[in-house]
Amino acid sequence: MSLSVLICDDSALARKQVKKSLPENWDIELRLASNGLEAINMMREQIADVLFLDLTMPELDGISVLELLKVKKLAEHVVVISADIQPEMQKRVTELGALAFIQKPVNPQKLNQILKEYGLL
Fold first, then answer.
1. Could you read off the pLDDT tens digit of each residue along the chain, which spans 121 residues?
2. Is the pTM of this model over 0.85?
3. CATH number for the domain running over 3-117
4. How far apart are CA 89 and CA 67, in angstroms?
5. Max CA separation in the chain (angstroms)
6. Which sequence spans correspond to the domains of the chain?
7. Buried b (16+ CB within 10 A) or exposed e, 45-82
């Protein structure tokens, strides 16, 4: 059974990089969003099993997305992917329910490790 995966980042290059970092044999239905508002709207139509989320975006930033997700329960597993690696920010996203925090650019081995750790791969 395939998983629903959503990559949300305002940078097309970053979305492409995350997509290329995903395991080749992973059975998924992949969707892409260019900002937090678009991601929330997409997840209202179909809840994402896995959401890869940037923090700094127009329309609705990643923190606001996490706050909405916590209330509405629209994503099962959220992995934050951001260049903002401040310990306070990492603590905040964890408090809001993110499983993990990955620094940009994505390290495919780190991503694989997280997916395996949470039984997603």
1. 789 999 999 999 999 999 999 998 899 999 999 999 999 999 989 888 999 999 999 889 999 999 999 888 777 899 999 988 888 989 999 999 999 999 999 999 999 999 999 999 8
2. yes
3. 3.40.50.2300
4. 14
5. 37
6. 3-117
7. eebbbbbbbbbebeebbbbbbbebbeeeebbbbbbbbb
